[in-house]
Amino acid sequence: MPSIIIFLYKIINRINISLNFLYYNTMIENEKKSDEYWKKKLTKDQYYVLREKGTEAPFTGKYLDNKEKGIYYCAGCGTPLFDSGTKFKSGTGWPSFYTAIEKDNIKEIKDTSYGMIRTEVLCSKCGGHLGHVFNDGPRPTGMRYCINSISLDIISEKE
Questions:
Q1: What angle do CA 15, 83, 2 make, to 5 degrees?
Q2: Can you give the pTM of this predicted structure?
Q3: Measured in Å, how far apart are the chain's first and last C-alpha atoms?
Q4: What are the structural domain ranges in the chain?
């Protein structure tokens, strides 16, 4: 029971950090962050995926086979995105989830790059590219959010 209380405390603290971040960003003229800001904040690989809409190589991401229980957050801004309880093994080479933690925390847009028609998934708070969503996932939603590990951080229940 104490580990659940600690976990909930960490989640509430992380949400407070995210809310404070959002409030601060709204108060500062609601400007988009500059490329220079993101280049300083993110690693080169994170910048490539989150800001330039890149993709990490399949079967290489640190969260692909992660079995820890916890909450996955946007590596760019800390917005909660996915619960580990919705993660499943899709065999595609990227971590897959069947639903977002809150629908308002992600944005889905049509992506016609590379001669394909797909649905891109972005963090709704910072606009960071997360991956794509497909309608071939498991029940209960039938959706597969195929997400780049490098776009994510996790707070484990153990922490």
A1: 70
A2: 0.80
A3: 14
A4: 2-156
Write down how long the chain is: 159
Partners of 155 in beta bridges: 71
> What is the rounded CA–CA span in Å between residue 40 and residue 43?
8
DSSP string, 62-112: TTTT----EEEEETTT--EEEEGGGEE--SSSS-EESS-S-GGGEEEEEE-
Q: Which two tokens stand for residue 40?
A: 């300083």
Contact assessment for residue 79 and residue 107, using Cβ atoms and an 8 Å cutoff = no
Mean pLDDT per 10-residue segment, the chain (159 residues): 59 57 43 88 97 96 96 96 97 97 96 93 97 97 98 88
Indicate which residue of 74, 77, 126, 146 is catalytic: 146
Active-site residue flag, 126: no
CATH class of 2-156: mainly beta
